[in-house]
């Protein structure tokens, strides 16, 4: 499983998004990812560069997990 680098260290994208595909239904995963997306999408336009960078990394992880487990 791929690891996320940068400001998140060595967390997996699943851990970063707080999903466990082995114990969560597809609908639960979709809801969790949608909640995270809304939160981090707003932060992506922040004037604070650290917050913006974190949001961009989270959005990448969210999109890739959605493609893998939901779409």
End-to-end distance, in Å?
19 Å
User: What value does the Rg take, in angstroms?
Assistant: 12 Å
- Taken together, the total number of domains comes to 1
For the largest beta-sheet, the strand count, sense and barrel status come to:
none
SSE string: HHH
Structural class by SSE content: mainly alpha
Helix content: 55-70%
Mean pLDDT: 88
Poorly predicted runs are none
Count every beta strand, where a strand is a DSSP E run of 2 or more residues: 0
* Shape by Cα distribution: globular
User: What percentage of amino acids are in beta strands?
Assistant: under 5%
Count of DSSP-assigned helices: 3
Note down, in words, how this protein is organized.
- The chain is built from three helices and no strands.
- It has helices at residues 13-16, 26-43, 49-69.
- By secondary structure, it is mainly α.
- The longest helix is centred in the last third of the chain and has 21 residues, at 49-69.
- It has one domain.
């Amino acid at each position: 499983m791929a690891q996320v680098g940068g400001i998140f260290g060595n967390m997996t994208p699943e851990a970063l998004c707080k999903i466990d595909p082995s114990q969560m239904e597809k609908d639960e995963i979709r809801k969790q990812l949608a909640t995270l997306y809304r939160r981090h999408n707003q932060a992506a336009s922040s004037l604070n560069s650290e917050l913006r960078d974190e949001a961009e990394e989270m959005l990448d992880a969210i999109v890739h997990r959605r493609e893998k487990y939901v779409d």
